[in-house]
Amino acid sequence: MIFRRFSGTRTFGSLLVISLLLAGCASQDQIAQEVQSNRQQSLATLRQGAADDTACQLETVSGDVGIEDCLELALIHNKDVQTAKLKLLEAKGQMTEAVATALPQVGFTGSALRNDNSGFINQKETYDLQLLARQPLYLGGLIRTALDAAAVYTYQKQQELRMTIQNVNLEVRQKYIQA
């Protein structure tokens, strides 16, 4: 753990507080404007889509359809395949989370205090800045175990996706031959 405390002059603290406040206010206003414009665009799109009945029509295929076309359509629109892909993405996220346990963590806090009393305290303003950095050195094998578990989970989800694709492939081929 590293703790640093700085007590600065009035100008340093004032400049720091003013710059932080101005930076925060400007970005918050911009973000609020962007969110409002995105909401208005979404509302306009929804209203236009409700008035337009052609947007609700399903995709249709015309002409001769081969087995490869059927397989492609089935893999694109099958809910089981989409679910398996999302679970694989989740497993990759767990791998990232396992790596993050080994990385250092850094935190920063600050505060300012102004004393308006003209009593015994000579110091009118006090600034307190703290920087905290933590690096795990040894966690009893937790990091290696988490990485191994995430790798196994990712492999399992890859195999489940592969099995789902093969099942869809088999089902489509059977239905195509029956038709």
Describe this structure as you would to a colleague:
α2 crosses α4 and α3 runs antiparallel to α4. The radius of gyration is 29 Å and the shape is elongated. It is mainly α and 179 residues long. A two-stranded antiparallel sheet has the order 1-2.
Summarize the structure.
The chain is 63% helix and 11% strand. It is mainly alpha-helical and 179 residues long.
Percent helix: 55-70%
Q: How large is the share of residues in beta strands?
A: 5-15%
Give the strand order of the largest sheet, numbering strands 1, 2, ... along the chain: 1-2
Mean of pLDDT: 77
Count of extended strands: 2
Gyration radius from CA atoms, angstroms: 29 Å
Q: Which stretches of 5+ consecutive residues score pLDDT under 50?
A: 1-14
Task: Describe the oligomeric state of these chains in a short phrase.
Answer: single chain
Q: Briefly note the structural class of the backbone.
A: mainly alpha
Tally of helical segments: 4
- What is the CA-CA span between the terminal residues? 70 Å
What's the layout of helices and strands?
Elements (H helix, E strand, L loop, with lengths): L9 H42 L15 H11 L1 H22 L4 E10 L10 E10 L7 H37 L1
Antiparallel strand pairs: 1-2
Helix pairs in contact: 2-4, 3-4
